[in-house]
Amino acid sequence: MPNISGPAAKKIIKGALLREKVAERAAECVAQGLTTTSLRGVDSHGIRLIHHYLAGVKSGRINPCPAYKITKKLPTTAVLDADNTFGHAAGMEAVKLAMEMAEEYGSGQVAIKNSTHFGAAAYFALEIAGHDMIGMSFTHSDSLIIPTHGKRSFLGNNPVCFAAPVAGEGPFCLDMATSIITFNAVRRLRELGEKAPENVGTDANGIPTTNPNEMTMLLPVGSYKGYGLSLMVEILCSMLTGMNYGSHISKMFENIEQKRHLGHFITATNISGFQEVGVFKERLAALLCELRSEPALNEEQPIMVAGDPEKKKYLSRDQDGIPLSDDEFKQFRNLNKTYQLNVELD
Amino acid sequence: MPNISGPAAKKIIKGALLREKVAERAAECVAQGLTTTSLRGVDSHGIRLIHHYLAGVKSGRINPCPAYKITKKLPTTAVLDADNTFGHAAGMEAVKLAMEMAEEYGSGQVAIKNSTHFGAAAYFALEIAGHDMIGMSFTHSDSLIIPTHGKRSFLGNNPVCFAAPVAGEGPFCLDMATSIITFNAVRRLRELGEKAPENVGTDANGIPTTNPNEMTMLLPVGSYKGYGLSLMVEILCSMLTGMNYGSHISKMFENIEQKRHLGHFITATNISGFQEVGVFKERLAALLCELRSEPALNEEQPIMVAGDPEKKKYLSRDQDGIPLSDDEFKQFRNLNKTYQLNVELD
């Protein structure tokens, strides 16, 4: 399997976007977001998406040079109109704004409207936690999961993300979709010709199946609990912004010329409004350390905390690069060539 | 099965607390919180707890007349020192404070320290949603769930609660524990002599069992996702407050004379900082209506949204009263008699 280094992937992504006349700041956010996401091992939301995004810019779905409009009715609330640009870029504007509000007032909450796919929710919450605040990020997405007792999908696989700073290591980060498995995992099972676990997804009639080729919809994690969390995220992203919800949201991979009008929600909480930041971080480090030292059922599988697999993956991929299939590597080489970027790849 | 009406239960609870010299406002919050929780069908966190609470007052665990201390370092953050009083009462002070901050600044976040059991998280989030704001409430609790790959419990069954106002009906309310089933459900299975479902809990060695008599620990909902959510709640309730965490938290039903030093976290978000409240509520009503009208897999089990079972239960119990076992009814009659409350019961 060929590898691409993080810096090379970022250069190609940013270079291609700039050649497509994407604003510098937006191109930087997309390139940084996709690359760190791949380095953290979350391939479904990483550098592979650049091809889809470039198609979106060319088709008119994504606005390469947005004019953001910010409506700030109260000191710690704002609505950011993303002007149909990249969710990564609008999200980072919201992060900045939420942190400014939290710096002065203790908390900041920004709802984003008229946006597009924002990638991994962790990109935003981790940025906030990197500034020693507590960050949360949410996005709705197009219909995929079946409400409890239902037989067709309505809400999306709406993620909940929470990050907090820890002394001596990267932030704690929980970034969880509200289905049991992702649709990306279903696609991987199809490729491998393997069965899916029981009761994670259904066929087109809403009947649970273990055949990944028949699986078109997913079941929420923990039944009504995951369904409820997905609905909570929908409320934050649609009701606060006026955007469409659930099955009214246009599909990510269909009608590529269509604007998506997505909503996201981002919050920053100033830890020093409650507790000395140093004490918070030291105590959280101690808590995580205690959890990791708890006795395991099976010695080969030690206890981890949310974000540990991604931290581990980051260490190895930062060293060895991001693994790609031959086809995917060829696509990156093509971008390098087409846009005359001259990034060293091999 | 004998029933007790909501108003009668509330009068007995409040009366008994007042006779034990609990401050009027605290007694009102506990009585109101326990009664509405039972009316909503959440028996594990309802009126049955009064006996445990009275024991806590008598033993010195719960301070009947607290002097709250509020430390407000920034306009939208506060730490409320509950002075070891009832969690219900301290929580309601925090609700008031968070809403005042949200009214003026858009959001309000209050961390509570030195508290005791606060009952159902929904009591607080629903109060906020009843004032047309978005409410969230969290509490940590003593060790009960096993971290993924682990074999002994560390974190508590820390709940996540989110409530938002809806046009034409009571608020949407998701109040979820982070285990698959509650320990109360395990106790009920013991009484009924029934088996537990597979993979919801373990014996004292961390081995999954379906025998409720052997079940001493619970598994997190959705494996590492529920575990991650539980840890998120622990961070909000312990790290922001300086309280103990996980297995260091004293047990609810042991050493009744011991102070518990619990932490909670409550947030209020002013909807009008983002969107006209009327529009928010109407659109949320439409979303919930659409979900409830989605086709069901089995006609006898229609689609619901979080909080629907509790709304339905409230309607019937508000009419017919709260069902109690003969023993439980007798205990309420005894309170009525012991404290000479003269509440009409039969």
Can you characterise this structure?
Two copies of one chain form a homodimer. In chain A, the strands form three sheets. In chain A, strands 2-3-4-10-5-6-7 form a seven-stranded mixed beta sheet, with helices on both faces. A two-stranded antiparallel ribbon of chain A has the order 1-11. The mean pLDDT of chain A is 97. Chain A has two domains: 3-179 and 220-277 and 309-338, Ribosomal Protein S8, Chain: A, domain 1, CATH 3.30.1370; 180-219, Hypothetical oxidoreductase yiak, domain 3 (Wheat Germ Agglutinin (Isolectin 2), domain 1, 2-Layer Sandwich), CATH 3.30.60. Chain A has ten helices and eleven strands. The first copy, chain A, has 346 residues and is of the alpha+beta class. At the A-B interface, β3, β4, β6, β7 and α7 of A face β3, β4, β6, β7 and α7 of B.
Write down the CATH topology of the largest domain in chain A.
Ribosomal Protein S8, Chain: A, domain 1
Q: Tell me, rounded to a whole number, the average pLDDT of chain A.
A: 97
Tell me the distance between the termini of chain A. 13 Å
* CATH homology superfamily of the largest domain in chain A: Malate/L-lactate/L-sulpholactate dehydrogenase, NADPH binding domain
Largest sheet of chain A: 7 strands, mixed
The helix-strand sequence of chain A is: EHHHEEHEHEEEHEEHEHHEH
Oligomer: homodimer
The percent range for helix content of chain A is 25-40%
Largest interface: A-B, 76 and 75 residues
Shape of chain A: globular
- Alpha plus pi helix count of chain A: 10
